[in-house]
Write a structure and sequence with these properties.
154 residues; alpha/beta; Mannitol-specific EII, Chain A; 6 strands
Amino acid sequence: MKISDVLTPELTSCNLPGRSKKRILENIAQIITAQLGGNNELCDLLFDNFVSREKLGSTGLGNGVAIPHCRTPGVKKIYGFLAKLTSPVDFDAIDDEPVDLVFALVVPEEKNDEHLSTLARIAKIMQDEESRQKIRDCENDDLLFNTVLALERK
């Protein structure tokens, strides 16, 4: 599954605020919930699922990147959310470096293969130093969205 299948301009943020991992995950859950037309119950479920996944092991990959993801019942397709944070936060990353780029995924429980292929596509882009720099250089949501789609096509 391609990034362009899961990411929309509305689910892209060039300046996501938050001073902690939990606050970032809470902000992401709120934004995704709003895009899905959900209520507080869905928002709480997404947040709890993100936090539960982090308890299994940090999704901080290193080099300032995290890819939090969770399976959520009732969600019909995979949704992505890309954010450049307003300031780096501790994400318990593998290299102990703070995170400033986050690509979150919300996945239906039954979409295992699509989930793994989408994670692999995201990780491939985020592991490339030049690609990370291009993403970090983005100054608005539209540019961030279009940059990551261009990087996927590369």
